[in-house]
Amino acid sequence: MTSEAPLLELVDLTRHFPTRNAFGRRTGWLRAVDGVSLSVWPRETVGLVGESGCGKSTLGKTAIGIYAPTAGEIWFLGREIGRLPARERRKVAREVQYVYQDPGASLDPRWKIGRSLHEPLQIHTALSRSGRDTEVRAMLQAVGLPDAHLDLYPHELSGGQQRRVGLARILTLRPRLIILDEPTSGLDVSVQASVLKLFRRLQEAFALTYLLISHDLGVVRAMCQRVAVMYLGKLVEVGESARLFAAPRHPYTQSLLAAVPSLTGPRSTRMLSLEGEPPNPRDIPSGCRFRTRCPLAQDVCAAAEPALRAVDGQLVACHLA
Predict the structure, then answer these.
(1) What is the mean predicted confidence (pLDDT) over 83-96?
(2) I need a surface site. Which of 10, 51, 128, 168 has the fewest CB within 10 A?
């Protein structure tokens, strides 16, 4: 963090989805994101981790406007953008971009790569054809691909090349913030390393800020200055990466790290094994959401939901921390 104001600030952000029966009547709510507050500073990389279904991707998609928030606020560059009209939101979209887990999802299989890279510039800028072509070639070079790829179709590219094209497409708009959703999923280890190196180089070259959503703790540890741990729609721990990996305070964070002991080596903190499945997000337990799987749970854990509070330089939502 720096003395600058946050680039992105989420305040009690909530996104609930209605659940319906066979007749289409609402029967309840799926609380995918349930009151999350998080700040992201310029030019930093913040990791968002947790098990599948914890709400990580929903949080990212709500922050960028793919989903409308149920409640709460989304501040970007000091402006609340959560409920902007479509025309105003379109202006913000240039500066906040989302990289999907499936890189091919943003590429029309019927279009050559050149047309896919021109499209965002046609929508968001007044550049001439030659101006767009110059920008497209510059961004393709920035991600390490030759001009010859402009005449290829998405299916002719490898997974790593598709990710690079997806980044080039986003970079043509010169965004400030990029949300990376499982950016190395499905890649070989060697390709993962080259993609992560590319992310770092682009961050330096274009002054980018990343919110990196991942279940791969090795990637998060290598890339992120800060880490936010999410469980059942809530943040349970937030802290500097080195400190959080060395001395996690929340039992859930300890459990996640215990599942990959080779990442950190011996610890002084007692580590807990993670057992069972997360509760149904349609039926959240009372009190602490992790208590049904936590071997340290006590009566107070069922009685009241813990708030994030400062503990040894980290934010931890645990009565026992």
Answers:
(1) 84
(2) 128
